[in-house]
Request: fold
Amino acid sequence: MNVKDIQPFVPPLRTLLGPGPSDVHPRVLEAMSRPTIGHLDPSFVALMDEIKALLQYAFQTENQLTIPVSAPGSAGMESCFVNLVEPGDKVIVCINGVFGIRMKENVERAGGIAVTLEEPWGRAVNPENLERLLEQNRDAKIVAFVHAETSTGVLSDAEKICSTAKKFGCLTIMDTVTSLGGMPVKVDAWGADAVYSGTQKCLSCTPGLSPVTISAKAVDKIKNRKSKVQSWFLDFNLVMGYWGENAKRSYHHTAPINPLYGLHESLLILKEEGLENSWERHKKNHLLLKEGLESLGLKLIVPEEERIWQLNAVSVPEGVDEALVRKKLLEDYNLEIGAGLGDLAGKIWRIGLMGHSSNEKNVTYCLAALGNVLREMGAA
Ligand SMILES: *Cc1c(COP(=O)(O)O)cnc(C)c1O
Reply:
């Protein structure tokens, strides 16, 4: 490559109906282009307080430690594991897709002992199986699970899982990267202890931040660890000095100023719409898409009562080249949908209707484009 030829990057205009990122709201992009200020500027500190309050609303929690980690959802995941899991801690990890596998990896890297509850891909975590496993592992300290598995489009019963974990004296780590903003997430009502999310799914912000909320009980465990958190950057004991209640705002790292303007705007949009209305919109558009897919002769792989609204896992019909369909959708329609991951690679498409992308116009557009491409390719 000759650097002399390089021009400013102008991205193509796509419609993002994959597993994330979703279309970013124009108000968010506009907010992010405002002038950068210092991260200890009093007006930035006021912005941090508003972001905390808006995140508490989104998570439905009064947890004081509710902050955006300055890195993507995977870092939010890692922050929960490195802070809560002490060397030798036994952790029950529920696995029903890709993100559960990553949780197990995180437990082991933090020096914990992972005991896995494996469920079939495309199905929810069964709380009765969890209860049985907890009976056999009375020394377990933590239960970790994914609320909305983006790799399969499956919802697990978070309330039941949290109450089961509590019965055995366990803390919970819950992944809400895909569920936050798109379906009910009730951190306090469910009693979840360490909950992380992402900004680029149902919040319609740009990728790169990870909202996290930690219960008082979990903060207690973190403050009383016998060993230091192995990650300096993600150590909540240090991060609390910057983001915490009555914190001195002592320098830890430079907060990503402009992305936080974007997050503030996206949470404000969520508040203006109202959480319940946002959930309802995601549900309505999911049902519209489902009807249309069925009339094209396509099937969703997840049983109806275990489906999430914001990610639809669709069976690829026999004899259809699934990658070619996605390529044509992108090239001819500027439309992005997702492929299957892991065991489901090549077998499903993942159609996301997340955040700003979840609207009736996109559903109609997606169905028309997919129908056209399948007909062109001679699919039945
Ligand atoms: C997208 C996603 C993640 C990872 O988030 P990144 O921002 O890509 O790091 C984690 N868990 C689930 C369920 C996700 O859908």
